[in-house]
User: Fold these one by one.
Assistant:
Number 1:
Amino acid sequence: MTCQEIQPLLYGYGDGELDLVRNLEIERHLQECAGCSKALERHQALRTTLTDPSIYHPAPAHLRERVRLSLRRQGKSPATFRATRWVGIAASVAFFAILGGTLAWALSKRPAEEMLAQEVISDHVRSLMANHLVDVPSSNQHKVKPWFNGLVNFSPEVKNLESKGFPLVGGRLDYLNNRTVAALVYKRREHVINVFLWPSATAEDSAPHVMQRQTYHLIHWNNAGLAHWVISDLNEPELQEFVQLFRE
Amino acid sequence: MTSDLRDKNQLARLEAVVLPHLDAAYNLARWLTGKDHDAEDVVQEAYLRASQFFDGFHGVDGRAWLLTIVRNTCYTWLKKNRPHEPTVSFDDEQHSGSREDTAPEGLLMQGEDCRLVRETLEELPPEFREVIVLRELEGMSYKEVATIIGVPVGTVMSRLARGRERLQQCLTKRLIKEP
């Protein structure tokens, strides 16, 4: 074989990816050809350089946990996940039908808000089940806030309102509105309060809007580019007090 | 409850298949997107997709399967977020380029100058960069690379050769320029 024929095969030869026949032919050629041997040396040198650790990018430490959480959140197969949500909605449809058509009015007025409220209720109920309330259990806001770094692409403001009777229980990653959201968990006596936050599509601030659905009170508002949804079975006046303290 | 148990088993099996290759996934995503933060986002999304497609995975080694998903997620992401960057499919015939210049004596590549190699690799067109990353950094065979990028083995071989030549040519030029 001539140098010109060998040249395009030399890398493949160095990679050990050529068939036996061509391997032997090239080996024979290299024994007699200084030019091609030199070229092969250059190939090897490049290969060696590329094995330097500074060229490889291993995954950063927090990415593993972020991915695991993300998989676990989607852990129920997506079909099951959606089915659960729709079952929740179907149940509340029945409930409100009994109350005489209230839901029909609510759905026709603000359907997106209604769907979101139902998702919030589902997530709230699920969080109350065993071992699912918090991912980072801590009453220290300086522990909870940084925990969200790398897990969500915004930085939630976390306050401990223990002195006002609303202690912080911890934080949790949850899933709402087709995205990962931050959930802050508070308590008032034995009542759990979930605060869901995520960057909002409409950046406009809005005043808190109070809703009552089933046995829950929900209050939601936008502020500083974040959507906030608060839910609890706590009574309305105390929950409003919580929201006021939270928003200060 | 049984469906919960089934989900837990499924999750455990999924994790066992995909988590060991997190470094490979991130490395590829980082070399294709060029930024840490973007690579992390892409990796998370790729893993979610892998989870959705997991029922269709019947193999033993998840690395090639996962990296195919990562690669596709990267290019979808790039098309959406950096539409100005060219990611057109590469016409191997057209871009055959000039014949290889054998490097003059004295400019034989040393193993040390990694910074130069890294910078040059960053600037290579993605078609060259990805085969070099998969072959040199991940140690995959030509056949595995061919599966991941969806071309014949011969194409992998020629792209690798040309990519490496371009690396060497750029390095040679720079070595001449630098004092």
Number 2:
Amino acid sequence: MKSAPSTDVNRPDATSEAGAESDGLPELVRRFRAGDEAAFDQIVRRLTPRLHSLALRTLGSAEAAEEAVQDAWVRIYDRIGDVKDPETFLGWAIRVTLSRVHDEFRSRARERAAREGLASLRTAAGSPRAGMSASEREDLARVLREALAAIDDTHREVFVLREIEGLSHAEVARTLGIPEGTVWSRLSYARRMLRDYLGRRRDDVT
Amino acid sequence: MTVEKLSAPGERARCEELAERISHYHDGRWPKGSAECSEVEAHLAECPRCAELLDDYRAITSAARLVRSTDAPPADAEKMSRRVRARLRSRVFMRRLKWAGAGVGFAAAAAAAVVALMVLPGTAPPPGGLAREEPKERPGKVAPELASGERPKGEPETPAAELVRRADVGPDPRKARRDYEELVRGIEEARARGGRRPDDGVHLVGRTTEPRRRRPPPAPRATVVPAPPLLGVVLGYRGDPGKTPVVFVEGVVAGSPADRAGLEPGDVVLAIDAQSVRGRSLEAVAGLIRRAGPGAKITITYGRGGETHEVEAVLAAER
């Protein structure tokens, strides 16, 4: 039986990776709030790659991701007054995008249950990634996305930011504006729900 | 069917208590050799169910990494910026149509549609404030020169665009609404006569005149938990968007205690022996049932058709 803790590969702080896109962002936000429309256009150009890749990885569809991010930008435009501190704009924009991603999940949820989903994931856990074909990888990704569509928003967003986007627990807490302890417990709950959703075995009667 | 060895109630409670810590352990929350880490490892060494839980968490994380490593084609930030601007401008247009101070909502009912007209550049703005200068932005459906805001030279004005140009939607909000709906009908008729072209110079956005169809409720998704049958139900798990996930009865074994108690597929399990199951996992609910033991009598509180019911069931004797 495995005893070593399964630690994730240390990932550099996501905010430092986003250095280029964050530089000068608070100033652009201030200018936009002061009425400079061109500043908003610059913000859109600068952050779209990141928000789009978050939406695309989570939803798995370019069309859905495009819709979600467009909607998010319109909402960001409308609700910029909610941002009290321009330094927190990036985290807030990510949350708005996640909210739109949740909406896309709801409108595009598949009815088909992910049969044998957990078995497939277990197989993948033991397989070297390089050995999987592109279609196998896509199938697994689809299974996980279907499971994500079945859990509630609050827990899904923690799972997406931590496990798919690869943010640390502290970064997830900062992005969502919640205590780090809450991130840990919500992540645990999300995993239980995903496992419940994915685990289907025959003849299981209580 | 495999029959699992029933754990003692104390052991199950311990597993429930440690379930969250196993997730933390998976994330490497505690350093190796720490008291918390050792406690979890000791339990994993003697509990196959929890060891399986950890394996499942690893599998889920692996799948998530697969998703993370998916090559995402780079977004066209410039195009996104243009599209967002187009949408924002079309909303300004909507506000103009509402006539300041009118207080009349165009979209009061399903049949009362509100649309915004987006007219491609090149058509002269009509009187009455219906001017629109928006490039159409549907990839693959519009020629590049139209997307950049230019009408191809020599392209005649389409009937739909002419209707928009000639339209005279006046300041009276009540009349404006009727004029507007008439205009939309005229456009649709012109398109029906002439055949719809993707670039006829007019783009209707916003809600259509059709009543909005309600989204069908999501189909229940079921997962079941392995266990020796005591009650005779197949439990399902459904996570409706925005709501706490619920455990429900997906199936009932004919002739079983559940069948005799009157449980039916679709019933939502609310409590077992007055213990609420809200927010509990599928395994936890099954565990509550099994904890009573073979031959025991349990009270099941369930929801059906918006009402709450309570029944007693005598669990099957041990096989």
Number 3:
Amino acid sequence: MIHLDFGTPLRNMPAILQGLLLTIELTVIVCALSLILGILVGFIRYQKTRGLYQICSVYVEVIRNTPFLVQIYLLYFGLPQFGIHMDRITAAILSLTLFNGAFVAEIIRAGIQQIPKGQWEAAECLNLKHMDILVRIILPQTIRNVFPTLINQAVIALYTTTLLSACDVRELMQTSSLLAARSFRVIEYYLVAAVFYLLLSNLLSWALGIINRKYFPSTGSIRR
Amino acid sequence: MKKKRTAFIKALLPMVLAAAVITGCSKTSTTTASTESDSSSASSSGTLQRVLQDKVLRVGVTRAEPFAMENENGELEGYDVDLANALAESLNVEADIQMLSLDARVSSLQTNLVDIVFGDFTATLERYQSISFSDPYTATGVRLLVRADNDSINSLADCDGLTIGIVKGSANQMVCEQYMEDNGINFEITFLDQHEDCVAALRNEQIDVFIEDGQYLEYIASQYPDDLKVVGDSLTAETYICAGLQKGDSDWKDYVDWFIFTINTDGTNQELYKKWFGTEMTIPLNPQY
């Protein structure tokens, strides 16, 4: 009969909460950075400007079609063999931003393509320059339309941080794993971690949902 | 009003059912455990009986050359693998060997995923509180692996302020933390998932020292003779490698202990050791018969 002892995780709660804090920090930083990167790359992929389009296409296709674990291994353990050294947090943020940025880029590109041509034509009639149209008319509408998908991607970004345990970044997963290895209370620690991830992802989608309703209301969600 | 009440009851019903099922399940498992211990006074959990009945011995190994590794055909081979096959042969059953990560060794026994773990598994008092071990079948000392051009490190005492790499789930974690406490030296410990990650990190200068079994480190140093070297006397008294077993199954433990006694006295163990490690076992095993 397996006897579950939740006292051990409770006693080590400060360490677990530190890991939770790092997970939250990483998720927020990565979401912000990958949004910027994704918008830039999405634009370029939509515009199809000569040289940049090829580079961005290679980037998006490679990143989207390889597992994140492989990417973090290559970045952290592979690059130093070519002389590029970076500390663990930098490698973590860089790899996560690249990974999520590729997905956000595709989301944004699809969003721009969905904007009806009428918007472009009307803006051109008003003699606005192409860049102006993109930034001031098309982009706000795009973000409004794809925001739910971006919320989804933010939750995916949260779960991808768990794979950082491969290079010993002490976020929630690695912290739980190390504590479990020390005390052999494996089920208890991972249950606690699961509960934290559940709360965190619910909090994340709820908070982003509020931002969605407030700043990017679509007709269906305007409170009357 | 009636509608609201029935709706409330309808919502409550699945939760009550779920709670009943869960408590029912745990009750059933306790009753099965007690009936097993009543009916067969010989075996408390019946691993030996189960292995003989199902004709398969489930073994867990960990990738630590040359204890267990994959050859070019993708098959597992190594010192631990040979021992597992010898044990299965003695029982006249098949061995189903699977690779585990280091921190899965204890949990795989606790959750009955495998019957026995031959995984470069050091028996420590902490581990003995959760699982059981067989008698030792080999012994090793914990040493340091450093880069070949690093002459300043000869033992753990020289590691003040450096970064040490340890595989997650290894017994060496306790050894290093104890050393830090006892000697007032401060170094940073990095926990990585696999042995080869630590070797790569050492060569990339991301860590300065890799602490692991002396035997394993000698093997790694022989693979990279120009880059890495093994230094330091054994950090601890000899650590004894035993097979991991589930707790509370004394029949199975007796069988495995006698198996190990047999291979020790008839020379099989020494032969296999020489085959995989290239040298003879120098540390005498305890208990000596």
Number 4:
Amino acid sequence: MNDEPFVRLALYSYWAAGTVLAGALLLGWLAVVQASRSGSIMHDRSSPYPAVAGTARALRSNSGISRGGALRRWSTGGVWLAFAVLSVSLFARAVATGLPPWASQYEFAVAFAWGTLGAFAVLTRTGRPAGLELVVPALALGALLYASTLPSAPLPTVPALQNRPLLALHVGGAIIAYGANAVAFGAALLFLLQGRAHAITGRHLAILPTPRALDELGYRAVMVGFPMLAATLLLGSWWGSIAWGYYWNWDPKETATLATWLVYGIYLHVRASREWGGTGSALLLVLGFALTVFTYFGNLFFSSLHSYSGV
Amino acid sequence: MRRRPGAHLDPIGILWRALSSVRVSLIPIALLVPALLAAALLPQAPVDVRGYGPAYAEWLEAQRETFGTWLPVLDNLSLFRISDAFWFRCLLAWLALSLGVLVLSRLEPTLSNRRRERLPLADVSAPLAGEHVRLHTDRSLAAATDTVKLTLRDLGYKQRHEARGSGSGYSLGGGYAERNRWQRLGTLANHLGLCMLIAAGVLGSVIGYREPTVPVTEGSVIPVGHGTNLSIRVNSFTATRHPAINITTDYVSNLTLLKNGTTVRDGHLLRVNHPLRYDGISFHQVSYGPAVDLKVTGAAGEPLYDGGVPLLELDPANRPAGTLSLPGYQLRVTAPRPNGVDGLVPAGEVGLELYHHLEGTRAGAEAPLASFNARQGRPVTAGGLTVTFQRERLYSGIGVTYNPATPYVWGGAVLMLAGLISAFGFPHRAVRIRLQPNETGTSVVLAPGRSRPMGRKAEFERAVGAIQRALDARADDGRSGSTMPQGEPVYAGGDHGHPPPPTQGVPGTRHER
């Protein structure tokens, strides 16, 4: 089952991706320092919602950091390179094990990082998101660091996981959803930061996108994450009905995922009706991601049918 | 809404409006979130002990060490059996009802609104309200209209246009362009699907049944019950473990299904992810575990039991344990601890405790009549019974499920997912257009559609940008396009613009598509 060269390739490319990502983050922070030294970090306009600003334009033009620097370009390139190398790692792992590369806690952690970087790349392809590239890739790096603490040797799968199509679709859907949720969380975090800056100084930080652009990005991310999480739940139910005889077992991971999905559902309704301002929506995104992380780590501290091999 | 004096109070109407309100329907969702988190964090009583008083009490007592004085509080709130809790079921019912009412109340308006939205010319003399953009071009009304039409067509919009005029020319033009006009049905579909899911789930729990794990030792025949006249016999069971690590990689039951004693399925290999389905009932390989074969005879030598005893539990010392019910007695059986030295129950023996079988109690609730070990193959007599430990075995854990509501569950799931994909992947977009000639060309006013689907702002700005670029491009007659200075169009959001002058003597309206 284990093809040794591919196992090594997966491991080496995992380490390479982590190194590249760490370097990209370092360059990104240096770019922030450079931008803040080169000019005012505060916006001239105090209005949180400029009358004319498409999301992409706002992401591109409304921050000093986008105007500069080789440092920032290298940082962005590093993030993309890390994503590509991580893709190689997952592919090699799949070849080595003969299964979708997310059948253990280690593999899922690596895939979580991959999904986060992939969602970041896709959702921000129309505009280079100043500031966000310091937050979202950091989450991916955190996932890679967590993976480094886990046993990485490929292990045989338990019988319940021996359903390749559903393993690919159910867990793959979760990875995409988690990645989109991470991007939404990053946008929400920066939104709250802008709000704090505005509350203290009356102006926003020029090195970050406008609150409106961040709000729109968070929404776009949830537009991906919410249906993918729904698909994850439904595919998991289908798998449960095949494996265990019932589509809902009140398994802790199932209920935690459902709670997470409902929080994003509340976010979508609240945002549509504008019941809460941007701050309320942003806080919901933060809560949603906190639940996402709780769900991900849940099988470590509660007994669940989702306990993976190797942990 | 204020009630007119003398108007009758309409409780049904009030309830209907409340249930169809998005704000109100968010309440059960918001309450479900902490309830689900509590269900994930707190230990939930297994399904098979919830309905059996002494078993539940015993399980609850085992939680006292963790929860201490909070135990009765949490139990009174049904937090150890949340899915069975009355308040939880009420929340689910509220949500399902709210979804259903929401769908019904919006179905007709959605179906009628998608056919038409009033064209801007209908309210030509009304002040422009809400967000709108005003562009200016030196093109004629006809040329500007064509440019706007072509641009929106290239963006994928379907359009309706009309013009008003008299004599040789037209003095006003207007249109409505939209994309994905079926999207609103997708939103309804996803809510209806979720409602169906909840309703089908509840229906299934009422009219169906489920045995999470029926332990069947090799050679045993166990009735399925529930009026099915079906029985399961496990002819053989195999569990494969990885030689180097402690992981089971496969376990398979060779199964025979009997109905009224007659074989209906023979030699079926039942493994995880490959259930056996018969007559609407499904059988699943869900688990396996240790068992022992015992032979028990009475004081007069009459056979009382000869078969397997599955060891489904762990005793306080982590030994596999099980209970055998006999006429007037219960026999508690424990096997040696796996992978460890066990001084009380060494390898090759089983521990036995004999109790009186009191109705409504489980073995261990009182002091045993006799407590002894039995070595394999050697009969032991105690309490009037003779027990022979014959061999160690495995039991196969088989899940049995009957749920006639399952097709509705999957139907609801497909509907929900299709609706979500439609709502998010193909959002409804609309642009209202008004064109009016002036001294220098044509004034083009654009406004988003009156409905407020999510994300419409960015798409509207994209359409405005495309129209502006098209108007700016050099016209075929050589004239330049827009007379606007290079830069941003005039946006007005939420304020009132100046209304165009009313058109005199409008004889009729020409419609275009």
